[in-house]
Amino acid sequence: MYGLRTPSPAPVRASAEPAPGPSPRSLPCLAVIAVVCVAVQLAFVVPGSGLGWDETVYVSQAGGDTPAAFFSAPRARGISFLVAPVAALTASTAALRIYLALLSAGALVGAFQVWRTLVPCRVLVCAGALFATLWPTLFYGSMAMPNLWCALGALAATGWVARAVLRGAGRAELLGAGAATAVVVLMRPADGMWLALPLLLVTVVRPRMFAAIAVGLLAGAAPWILEAFAHYGGPLTRLHRASEIQGGLGWNLAVDDQAKALEGRTLCRPCTIGWKRPGTTVWWALLPFLAVSGVVAARRAGRSAVILLATGTAVSLAVPYLFLIGYAAPRFLLPAYALLSLPVAECLVRLYDRARRPAGRLTGQWRVVALAAVLTAHLAVQLQVTSRVSASSHSTSADFTAVAAALHRHGIRPPCVISGDQAVPIAYYAGCASRQTAGHDGSITPAGLRDAARRVPTAVLVAGGGPRPSYAPSGPPVFLAETRDAGPYTGYLFAPPDSSPARTRPGP
Q1: Which has the least CB within 10 A, 60, 81, 92, 378?
Q2: Closest to 343 (Cα-Cα) out of 302, 286, 293
Q3: What is the pTM of this model?
Q4: Percentage of residues in the chain with pLDDT exceeding 90?
């Protein structure tokens, strides 16, 4: 399907590149890119950052003093396993950020190094630089989120399969493909399925590699499947619930939503925002054309098989997020971007070569300068968006911290329970358990919440001056904090538990 048969021998063209062999030069170059990537994260993302909503869910499962948040049907345990070594030892967000930044940088080098025998060094280094400097890569490199890890796993798995198809499946290829596939499925089972589809298709006549991918698929999905039987009545029931939470999977054209979200929205649901910064989408609009041009360039260089595999797998991974869900988040497309960086790098390297060989030397120099200027402008846009998204994330974290501190002042201290608006992240910041009576994170009934309030301090949060929830206590609301993102936060506080006579109910 993807043109993976080794091309028949053909007359060697003078302009064709020789088949690449192992490139020892790629490792130090990729290492430099990784170091720069970490430095940018330490400068823009890490200082002053706190955990976002999804991060608090994943990290709270990994130990520490904070009660585990409700784990809804679409989620998987991969990130919780990844952060456990740090989360079990310290509650420091900075320590977790630095750990993930260093770990993801090393994984980036390793994933691209899988391709070192398949494409020339300069193509590989260019691809690594392109992917590493996208703002979703820079922003999520230190985040406790699964998408970047899916991207690096998909890149590595596809590289191992390409090596096996072209040169035979040795032990390294089998273990590498199986392990990388398992990592993707462990992080996001749906991404693992869309990754496995093209890889299983191209290895169907290669039983050993087919089996390695299938085993990796099952191994990575095992925790999710076991949890489905334990809490949902089976995988099909869990899939149905996950589809409900995600708004129902079906034909949904989300291409325009993904484009608008690139201006700096970490989640666009519903994506009814105006398109304020269309300049941030220029590179995205050019991406299909650059990728197709890269496939053509790779074909002329005798590398069509591996580049077609990377491109086809990228398309498979992008399909659900462009056409099957009704909302957008730039992080969803990170796996596709990682694989598309290879054909785009093929295109840019060929453009550079052509720019250096014009009729006039001066003209050639200006073409090289023009290409460098375009890439510099692209990098500037990515850094600008990274800075803006980081500032917005820091503002949200500051809001959560302010509300949590106000709850502590009013006697809501661990052990405690919080429900209502943004209860999941605020409960994590306050050291409380989050319990919702309805919605995606519904985990308790109103009667159960009132019963909990007899044992531990309990509060119901309302953001932006909203009405009192029906399950909240009847007393007057308590003003907690004025936030930049959601306006004023108020709380309805249940009477102090009988077991804590020293506590007094705070006034309005």
Answers
A1: 92
A2: 293
A3: 0.91
A4: 77
